[in-house]
Amino acid sequence: MTDVKDSAPLVLGTEKIGKLLMQYAIPAIIAMTASSLYNMVDSIFIGHGVGPLAIAGLAITFPLMNLAAAFGSLVGVGASTLVAIKLGQRDKESANQVLGNVVLMNAIIGLVFMTVALVFLDPILLFFGASPDTLPYAREYMEVILGGNLVTHIYMGLNEVLRASGYPKKAMTATLMAVIVNCVLDALFILVFEWGIRGAALATIAAQVISLSWQLHHFFDKKSFLHFQRGIFGLKRHIVGGMLAIGLSPFLMNLCACFVVILINKSLKAHGGDLAIGAYGIVNRVVFLFLMIVMGFNQGMQPIAGYNFGARQFDRLKQVLKYTVFCGVAVTTIGFLAGQLFPRPIIYLFTSDADLTRIAVEGLRIVLIFFPVVGFQMVTSSFFQSIGMAKKAIFLSLTRQLLFLIPSLLIFPNFFGTVGVWMSMPVADAIATVVAALMLRWQLKHLNV
């Protein structure tokens, strides 16, 4: 699909589904993979340029990063779906109102979150599992990241609107731009200037500032399908309510992820110490790479599903779901094979420390045991979100983490120690997939598609 002003969204209801999904998904996959690499690059440079305790300190920040992402997705993902549905209903004016509300909501939430988190940063990090050895690293990193939180939120929100309004290639370009700049600045700040973990954080925020500037140039251009104009920057109750209702699913998912990582960090600290937390930081980055690719397919699916659901073209809705499920399962199966067959070379990318490598290899193999089914579960949850069925998407988002993973984390480590922490994750994956399959089957029958 080309980034053309008036025809861009309309092909969502006419183009062949397979071609359309690839046209939307490939830029999203590149963008999401790049976003994952964005985080991995920080870990790699920190692991080799600062040390294993710095990796553990970085892992301590994951819950706070998840919490920030939760508020970002509350607005961004909800806006993306709402824009797609409005365009499917030929309501361009409302879609443009969504754009203005995205900027305002992200600015408000970003500033409030930054202020509260900075004021209580040390107590938060200690609660998340920081030790006297890892707290300085975690604090140094998050002070910079939180200082740029406003930029991060607006950058992420505008990228979601870019993709949903018919500019998937531009959304991809914005992310790639941030990744490339981040990689260059990481090498410069950490290896040349020797700014340590603070250098990694500065590189991240500087890269986002550059990408945000490029996004703003697009939305100030009146030739863009959706663009800034007078009258769109006042908060509208029905638009904000719609965004928050749809975005509540990924928000709660990220919120649960925050609590889950806290439990994981505390359990690993109790049974394996700081290095076990560092190992989880590495495993999480590796797993996240494959999950982000699936999320790329999901993002490609969302505007297509949302548009055709709004246009009541249910045969096309079913087609895009089938294609996306197949692709998602294929990705997580590749991740499973890579983790089982080549765990040590993968971990060596992050660290050469023998003890940290040994713990991380064991964790990676266990975590990925049922990984092939995760792709199906993720696509199913995203499908409900894409067609505006917020309550069902929320339920599916919560099943794995709240109903299955948290109880497993409270039980298994008491019997199996560190291994019990690792095994809690694949057990939750397997059970959540069964629930997702049952709900999807019922929904498709109900829609008569």
TrEMBL record:
Which Pfam families has this protein been placed in? MatE
In terms of one coarse class, where is the protein primarily found? membrane
What is its membrane topology? Multi-pass membrane protein
Keywords, comma-separated and alphabetical: Antibiotic resistance, Cell membrane, Membrane, Transmembrane, Transmembrane helix, Transport
Q: Is this entry keyworded Transport?
A: yes
The domain of life is Bacteria
Q: Which InterPro entries match?
A: MATE_fam, MATE_MepA-like, MATE_MepA_subfamily, MdtK-like
Residues spanning the membrane: 20-38, 45-62, 68-87, 99-121, 174-193, 240-264, 276-299, 320-343, 363-384, 393-413
Q: Where in the cell is it found?
A: Cell membrane
Q: Which family does it belong to?
A: Belongs to the multi antimicrobial extrusion (MATE) (TC 2.A.66.1) family. MepA subfamily.
State the name under which the record lists this protein: Multidrug export protein MepA
> Which species is this UniProt entry from?
Butyricimonas hominis
